């Protein structure tokens, strides 16, 4: 028999304290009835003997210390799920906000996820095609991977998220059995409307599940949003056998909500005021990506976070980098130069890329051309540093050509526009044309067999409208 407790001992912000409560469990859901008969939801967040602290989702306004009635429900927070969630919009706590009514639930799932035995994990292979060259070629997103986007204030990470939702597809099935769970935390109404409008205009809403937590919503709801989103993703992946891509933004907003909540509980702060358990809390989100034995579906994550002051050593990107398998970094300099998407390829990497590309997945030459593009662009940065010291006129003919390559790489490879969706073949062919601008002898990451098959300097000159005389002729004249 469920007991109902009358009265509260203390009200502190979004937290209420009850004493003499027996048998309570951590994360247990609570129903709170106000004097006027309305009810609110909460959960147990702290237990000290028979004293419990309850987090009230809708806030503690109008709560009374004397007349409030509290009932423990004996279960954790659960999300109602069925295949009907596709195409629907929910708030951060998993309640429908699109005016289409409640979800007819096939089952209720714990938002904290089910324990996943590491032995049952399958190593991620095969890739998800985003249609964005800088990601698909140089930091490939592998199915079952967690690959964050490190952004900064004023950078177009929202546009990039929308573009990935519009274009992403499972490579070998052309999108069949593919769904996207999109969660936004702490966004303004304008941004939330932009996401909804963009997905509807692109005609992809029927395969998207949206969770929206607005900036004026309770911060408690913000801490639930990614867990609700991941629960929906796990249902679609492991019960409906779909490949699911989870994109959630902004992890920094989530961490700031966690910091505020931790402070209200009186916990000892860690670095920059964040709770000491921030690492394990983030891991409880990120580690819900993957593939498990016996399941046809998979969960892939792209968490987006903004780095305060573009500081990659800030606790949020720092801890995220430890847990995830690489990162995609956006560059303020490239953004200022009008390049979209402004992906800074040198600090970006995908640690699982090597096992999910190549013959049978993308194309046999993928790893080789990616290595050569990295090497060439890295040399471009060295040449730019040298130019700042001695001036461009004093550079060798080859170094001048590397500068030309760098401009072409940024303008044609990185800069592709919001509505351009490139196949992996188009991306790799573009990469070959770019390296073909350089002399064949300079391409030391490619073997002769690949060069014989793909290298064509004349084609590159024609494609990029390079004015003769070319670097090869300059080198020949210098040798003479």
From TrEMBL:
Keywords: ATP synthesis, Hydrogen ion transport, Hydrolase, Ion transport, Transport
GO molecular function, one term: hydrolase activity
Signal sequence segment: none
Record carries keyword tRNA processing: no
Coiled-coil regions listed in the entry: none
Biological process, per Gene Ontology: proton motive force-driven plasma membrane ATP synthesis; vacuolar acidification
UniProt cross-references to InterPro entries, sorted A to Z: ATP-synt_VA_C, ATPase_a/bsu_AS, ATPase_F1/V1/A1_a/bsu_N, ATPase_F1/V1/A1_a/bsu_nucl-bd, P-loop_NTPase, V-ATPase_su_B/beta
ATP synthase A/B type C-terminal domain boundaries: 355-454
Domain ATPase F1/V1/A1 complex alpha/beta subunit nucleotide-binding: 131-350
Entry-linked CDD domains: ATP-synt_V_A-type_beta_C, ATP-synt_V_A-type_beta_N, V_A-ATPase_B
ATPase F1/V1/A1 complex alpha/beta subunit N-terminal domain span: 10-65
A Pfam family of this chain: ATP-synt_ab_N
Protein function: Produces ATP from ADP in the presence of a proton gradient across the membrane. The V-type beta chain is a regulatory subunit.
Family: Belongs to the ATPase alpha/beta chains family.
Protein name (record): V-type ATP synthase beta chain
Name of the encoding gene: atpB
């Amino acid at each position: 028999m469920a007991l109902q407790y009358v009265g509260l001992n203390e009200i502190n912000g979004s937290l209420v304290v009850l004493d003499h409560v027996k048998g309570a469990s951590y994360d247990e859901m609570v129903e709170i009835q106000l004097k006027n008969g309305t009810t609110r939801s909460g959960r147990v967040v702290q237990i000290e003997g028979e004293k419990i602290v309850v987090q009230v989702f809708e806030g503690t306004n109008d709560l009374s210390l004397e007349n409030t009635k509290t009932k423990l429900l004996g279960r954790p927070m659960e999300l109602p799920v069925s295949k009907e969630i596709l195409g629907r919009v929910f708030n951060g706590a998993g309640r429908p906000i699109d005016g289409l009514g409640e979800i007819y639930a096939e089952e209720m799932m714990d938002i904290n996820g089910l324990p996943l035995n590491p032995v049952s994990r399958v190593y991620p292979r095969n890739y998800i095609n985003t249609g964005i060259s800088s990601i698909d070629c140089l930091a490939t997103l592998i199915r079952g991977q967690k690959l964050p986007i490190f952004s900064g204030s004023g950078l177009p990470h929202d546009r990039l998220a929308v573009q990935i939702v519009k274009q992403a597809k499972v490579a070998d099935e052309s999108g069949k059995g593919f769904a996207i769970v999109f969660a936004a935390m702490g966004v303004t109404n304008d941004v939330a409307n932009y996401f909804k409008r963009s997905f509807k205009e692109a005609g992809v809403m029927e395969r998207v599940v949206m969770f929206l937590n607005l900036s004026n919503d309770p911060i408690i709801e913000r801490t639930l949003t990614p867990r609700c989103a991941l629960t929906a993703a796990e249902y679609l992946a492991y019960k409906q056998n779909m490949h699911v891509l989870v994109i959630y933004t902004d992890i920094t907003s989530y961490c700031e909500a966690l910091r505020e909540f931790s402070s209200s509980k009186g916990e000892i702060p860690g670095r920059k005021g964040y709770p000491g358990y921030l690492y394990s809390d983030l891991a409880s989100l990120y580690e819900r990506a993957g593939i498990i034995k016996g399941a046809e579906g998979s969960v892939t994550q792209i968490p987006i976070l903004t780095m305060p002051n573009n500081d990659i050593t800030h606790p949020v990107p720092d801890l995220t980098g430890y847990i995830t398998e690489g990162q995609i970094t956006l560059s303020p300099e490239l953004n200022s130069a009008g390049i979209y998407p402004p992906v800074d390829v040198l600090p970006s990497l995908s640690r699982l890329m090597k096992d999910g590309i190549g013959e049978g997945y993308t194309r046999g030459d993928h790893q080789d051309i990616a290595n050569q593009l990295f090497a060439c662009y890295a040399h471009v940065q060295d040449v730019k540093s040298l130019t700042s010291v001695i001036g461009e006129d004093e550079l060798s003919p080859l170094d001048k050509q590397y500068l030309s390559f760098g401009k072409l790489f940024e303008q044609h490879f990185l800069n592709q526009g919001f509505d351009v969706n490139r196949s992996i073949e188009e991306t790799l062919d573009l990469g070959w044309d770019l390296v073909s601008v350089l002399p064949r002898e300079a391409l030391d990451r490619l073997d002769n067999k690949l060069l014989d098959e793909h290298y064509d300097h004349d084609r590159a000159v024609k494609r990029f409208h390079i004015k003769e005389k070319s670097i090869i002729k300059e080198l020949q004249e210098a040798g003479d």
